[in-house]
Design goal:
This protein has helices at residues 12-22, 45-70, 75-88, and strands at 2-5, 24-29, 32-38. It is an alpha+beta fold. It has a three-stranded mixed beta sheet. The chain is elongated and about 55 Å long.
């Protein structure tokens, strides 16, 4: 996997050639990863995006579970966090 700077995004011909060859590129800002560029095709774009979101969700849940081992949290705090999240998204 290759790393590109935000500045490198302006060189579109090289960008598309490299993305086609490697299928995924990490974009950096100030030397730190800030985005991942993934090649998809038109037929599978929606499915690819759904898979990426599913993977990110699974990773977030794993991080939270590891963190929970060292920090105890009450059921009330969990319920409050869920309620707040739903409220922020307009679901409550």
């Amino acid at each position: 996997m290759s790393y590109l700077t935000v500045k490198d995004l302006k060189q579109t011909r090289n960008l598309w050639r490299q993305l086609s060859a490697e299928r995924e590129l990490v974009i950096t800002r100030d030397g730190k990863p800030c985005a991942i560029l993934v090649e998809v095709n038109a037929e599978s774009c929606d499915e690819s995006l759904a898979e990426i979101r599913r993977g990110l969700f699974s990773s977030a849940v794993s991080r939270i579970r590891r963190k929970a081992i060292y920090q105890s949290i009450s059921p009330e705090e969990v319920d409050a966090a869920i309620s707040e999240s739903r409220k922020e998204r307009g679901l409550a």
